[in-house]
Amino acid sequence: MDQRTEYLLDWYDRNARKMPWRGEKDPYRIWVSEAMLQQTRVETVMGYYDRFLQSFPTLQSLALAEEKDVLKQWEGLGYYSRARNLQAGARQVIQDFGGTLPVDPAELRKIHGIGPYTAGAIASIAFGVPVAAVDGNVIRVISRLYAIEENPEKTEIRDRVQKLAEKLVPTERPGDHNQAMMDLGATVCVPGTPDCEVCPLLGLCQAEKRGIAAELPRLSKAKPPREIRYDLLILRSGSQVLMRKRTEKMLQGLWCFPMMEDWKNETEITGEIWTKWGFSCAKMICHGEAKHVFTHQTWRMMIYETEIAGDCETPKGYRFVSVGDFEALAMPTAMKKARALVLDRFSTMKT
Ligand code: SF4
Question: pTM of this prediction?
Answer without folding.
Answer: 0.83
